[in-house]
Amino acid sequence: MCFIMTETWNGDAISLTEAFHSGEKSPIEEAQATFKNIKESSLNAFSYLDEEGAMARAEQADVSLPLGGVPIAVKELHNVEGWPDTNASLVFADRVSRFDGTMIERLKAAGANLIGLTTASEFGGLNCSTTKLNGITTNPWNHDLTPGGSSGGSAAAVAGGIVTLGTGGDGGGSIRIPAGFCGLVGMKGTAGRIPRGPHTGIGPLTVVSGCLSRSVRDTARWYDVCAGFDPRDPYSLPKEHGWEAQLGTTDFSGARVVVSPDLGSAMISDPVRVLIVEAAEEIIKIAGLQRVDVDIDLPPIDWEWAIANQAGLYKELGDRWPDCEDDMTKSIAFGMRMGLKRYNLDIAARVEEGRTAANERMADIFDQTDFIICASNPDIAFPAHIESNTRVAGEKAPPGNNGALTIPANISGNPAISVPAGLVEGMPVGVQIIGVQHSDRAILDLAYLWEQHNPWPLTFHKQN
Questions:
Q1: Which CATH class name applies to 13-300+348-453?
Q2: Average pLDDT rounded to a whole number, residues 301-328
Q3: How buried is 404 (Cβ within 10 angstroms: 0-12 exposed, 13-18 middle, 19+ buried)?
């Protein structure tokens, strides 16, 4: 089956805005093509469409705005007033959002044409996009495999040529994992860079918002639009300007880098290891980095960390639990039961002890280096039909292993970006660059250098 969608824009979002400015394309034409391709797609990337509203917005689009008229997909865990607010769960299948999220408000103000909701894992808890509510979302590169999660629908829509941008959220790798599996750019900024909220619980201080994009410059423009302090997120960071304008201006002279494909503990495949080392060597060469040897021996990510994160879910479920259990994904329901059974002050103390140890060790590492280069995922995408932390004999590396590569940056709040490194068995592999807190611009610039040196396909272009 050929999955090349020629009707929609196959470049990045910035080039689409330029096409709007020049008259090469109109927001109406792009919106029409977007909905046509969604209806023809077998990816199952969308759970809700606002076709009538989007077409009306396309007719009134102000293309002078940063994202004026650009169709953008919204991860179904993000709030858009009047749209479904399901959290990808049957439990909330009939719930409607009463408000816009802060990032959504800023996207609307920048002229973005929000077209609908993309599928995600239930409550954002798994690194695949298979739910009882929406079924199975697949990877444009191979429809038997997952696009990852929890922002899998956004990744599939962007990589599959449907939209140029989609929102994402990352509490343990949920932007970077699907970016790696689908050949996209996925940036997890320093914690607080893009505010969360309103009405968002503060704990566990690991979740950030962002996007799935086709280019580094698109992600930089996203930060120009969405980043900056908001009082409804007291941990959000002050506004910084010039993310796109200053892209590529970092001087890397004397900057140090550690190359650790497995980040010290992940079980990664040999082909992925080889590709990450090759990419790292090229990045070091083109940026003029100084390679240093530092032991990457981060504290283990124990089960207590996952259980502690169930508190927010328990609050949201309220008196629906336990009657709603049969409506939930098996893995999420199991986690809820385990949390109620085992979480106590002893576990809470151990979680905080582990968080402190992780912060201290990460800080020790960045006393000795400026960047870490590692894999985004331990292997290529795994089968789309399985849930996280399950494995069938002969299938790819267990999905739960992803956490060892991505969760550390969430716990410590470090910025990290996944960009395409190349292909293994015809499937994308992401290389991840991690920096010290607040070094987001440098992370973007390293990714930008790599993109200029080793441009990747912006959408999927092959026969399945």
A1: alpha beta
A2: 90
A3: buried
